[in-house]
Design a protein that fits this description.
Layout (H helix, E strand, L loop, with lengths): L26 H5 L12 H10 L26 H4 L27 E6 L5 E4 H7 L3 E8 L4 E11 H8 L7 E6 L19 E5 H4 L5 E6 L2 E2 L9 E3 L12 E7 L6 H6 L22 E4 L5 E3 L7 H4 L14
Parallel strand pairs: 1-10, 4-11
Antiparallel strand pairs: 1-2, 3-4, 4-7, 5-6, 5-10, 7-8, 7-9, 11-12
């Protein structure tokens, strides 16, 4: 008899967050007088219409992909109309109603540079990469540092599979990821206030953890431009600002990357950014989260519920802020 042992993150799929609820980080700018940060996009219909008229994604025929049943949920899947219109993508706007503007993003040709401490630096096109990677679907919770949450069916491949292809040298300790920089295509990058391009980083141990996932699709089709097409990161035990979008470069290094939000506001956003309900943001509590689509307040889970798989990564780390 096969006995299934329920994992800490699991919930009945019938409770998974609907397909339409996914994006935010505006409180910082509001507090600093730089703009609004917390409004649900009101332009869903225009945004979806704009997406329909944008150049089609040539990888559409790859989806849907088979779901990996290891990764299940404890709440309903967020409705897709929400998760693709409630969004943060500062390259296009510091307002969440940005899906229409993000259709300016040109997703082909799209090449990825792999450099730094690797056996052989290379450049590879996104479609060639997709042919080499084991695509699958995973249901993950997403927890924003702004204290809202959603649940999304992501499609993509394990980051550790990408790392294996890149063949980093033994001395590499970190993986730095960089987003495109093109102010003509992304008007938000004309702002002098932000430290463009968007940079994020993981330790090699984090990057090769089973949960770390490079996303190329969601809800059974290619990931939309406003959600980080054609390639973004998802690390479900961390706050969402670690989930860098529209990646163009992976650099293996022995020096810890200084990320976009650290450069912008290091007193509030650190390198690790792991979810902990007991450690408040300097300006608000993290004890509970608002579920997009329902407005329900739920207790925030330590490590966003994924602790049995990632808590060991941080054993022995002292004197650092692991949770902001």
């Amino acid at each position: 008899m096969l006995i299934k042992i329920k994992q800490g993150w699991e919930i009945p799929e019938s409770r998974a967050t609907p397909e339409s609820v996914f994006h935010n980080r505006r409180d910082l700018l509001k507090a600093m007088g730089m703009g609004s940060l917390l409004a649900v996009g009101s332009g869903a219909a225009p945004a979806l219409a704009a997406a329909a008229t944008a150049d089609p994604d040539p990888s559409a025929g790859l989806y849907p992909v088979k779901r990996n049943e290891t990764y299940t949920l404890d709440r309903p899947i967020t409705d897709e109309k929400l998760s693709t219109t409630y969004n943060n993508f500062y390259e296009y706007s510091d307002d969440k109603d940005l899906a229409d503007a993000a259709q300016q993003l040109k997703i082909r040709p799209w090449t990825l540079a792999i450099d730094g401490m690797v056996e052989k630096p290379m450049t590879i096109g996104i479609d060639d990469l997709l042919k080499q990677m084991p695509l699958e679907e995973r249901l993950y919770r997403h927890r924003c540092v702004e204290a809202w949450s959603m649940a999304v069916p992501w499609s993509g491949f394990p980051l550790k599979a990408f790392v294996a292809m890149a063949k980093p040298l033994s001395g590499a300790k970190y993986l730095q990821m960089t987003t495109f920089q093109d102010p003509k295509m992304a008007p938000g990058q004309k702002s002098f206030f932000y430290p463009w391009p968007y940079i994020e980083g993981l330790t090699m141990e984090e990057a090769t953890n089973d949960l770390a996932f490079l996303v190329t699709g969601m809800y059974g089709h290619p990931v939309p431009r406003q959600d980080g097409a054609p390639l973004r990161l998802v690390t479900p035990w961390k706050y969402g600002f670690k989930s860098i979008k529209s990646i163009v470069k992976f650099s293996f290094t022995d020096k810890r990357p200084v990320s976009f939000w650290q450069k912008l506001q290091s007193s509030e956003y650190g390198f690790w950014a792991n979810v902990n309900p007991e450690v408040p943001h300097p300006r608000w509590s993290q004890a509970t989260e608002r579920v997009l689509g329902t407005g329900e307040r739920k207790p925030t889970l330590m490590w966003n519920g994924y602790g049995e798989h990632v808590a060991h990564l941080y054993d022995g780390i002292k004197g650092e802020r692991l949770f902001t």
